[in-house]
Write a structure and sequence with these properties.
The protein is mostly beta strands and 513 residues long. 12% of the residues lie in helices and 55% in strands. The chain is built from seven helices and 23 strands.
Amino acid sequence: MNLLTSRGNAIWAFTLISFSFLFSNAQSIEDALRYSLDDVQGTARHAAMSGAFGALGADLTATSLNPAASAVFNTNALAISGRNTSNSQDLDYFGTTGSSEFSSFRLEQLGGIFIVDNYDMSSDWTKFSFGVVYDRMSNFDNDWVASGVNPDNSVGSFFLANAQGKRLDQISAFENESITEAYAAIGSSYGYEHQQAFLGYESFIIDPVVFDDANTSYVLNVNGDSYSQRYISSTRGYKGKVAFNFATMYRDFLSVGINLNSNFVRYDDFKRLDEVVIGSTGTTNSIDFRETLATTGGGFSVQVGAIAKVTSSLRLGLNYHSPTWFYLTDRTTQSVGTIRIEDGDEVPIVINPVIVNYFPTYRLNTPGSFGASAAYVFGGTALLSFDYNYKDYSQMRYSPGIDDFFAEQNTIISNTFKGASTFRVGGEYRIYQVSLRGGYRFEQSPYKDTEFFGDLEGYSFGLGYNFGGVKLDGAFTQSRRDFQDRLYNVGLTDTVQIRNVISNFIFTLSFAF
């Protein structure tokens, strides 16, 4: 089917897919942060000590934290870990409170380390280690619902903000052009913001000041005393990596190592906002706006590290994690339904283009980080470990930077985020085959405005049993962070106040041979 040439000769297929090649501006600073944050993941032993493992070894996740840790193994090792996560939220939206909870189980980690002893007595390099480790670094599975009465702001302001300054003939369907055809062509010719304006105009949420093709000013048809709103958020996905590890030990004193990481992301987001106008004086008094976002992609990163055995008891560690250079692709769907008042009657309007928007692949560089750690081993029965990590979130970058939208987002990132420190402390005490563990961590907010996104505090404990060549470990971790979730980037920028508590049960089965 041919579309009008004024739409830029856009072509669409029977599968109803819209391609937006030039105006890929669905990304936000929140997306950049999502893929830059990491959780305390991996083995139960590592989690039970709150991730304070940078100067220790003989643990699969320690290798992902500090690549030199694999050379500390005395034997080959295999391990598999699973995690059950409970995500609990206390919500507040304009004084209306609520709560929600979502649980999920997943494979957390799988991998192995293999040791090669060096029998050349003239060499100072006593052994080498090789490994492959899969880590699920972040979990995005969560559901929550927030409801409240907004005294000032309708979701219609989102469509109005996107429409202002755009020509009417660029955000409306031509004569004999279907909603599907127009939405696809507008996305391909003009981009994301024009599509939002199109949805608002065709659903009677907004009207032009003058019904003329050259009009660029619009008014809102949604007016009232207040706005009863219900916001639904449902997300699924994960961020993970496969690390290819190599390390070596020098004179039983110094271990050095490197990880070459293949990173991957899958993120699915469904959002729905239902609004009913209270005391309506406009011509539209109800809105149902739905969106989905699916992000997939991969990337590459490098980690290097060293562990020094200063004395028989004291270990010191250093590590550097490079930025992750991601290549990501987004696809979206949208629909909007309204109730319009015509001659005193309620008329339902449904604008569902049945289109999947595919945005061009873009690049995201997450920030690198530096870590320093120390551990003290009390004979063969106990240890105490401390880790410090620094990551500058203001260095997150979208590219290509010559793109005006990405350049604007990068400026916002620099002005919004800051460097953040993480402190972790953990301990372990062994009683014959039984190990008792505990830990605490504190992560500073990556935002300059800590009221918008607060610091994180977490604690952990666990135990393990050594059967000889087989070990079974379990851990419980819990962390809390207070933050605000902004509903939309423009227009309806009001926030839901959220207190998020994440609880994890982790189990690890490991083998030494």
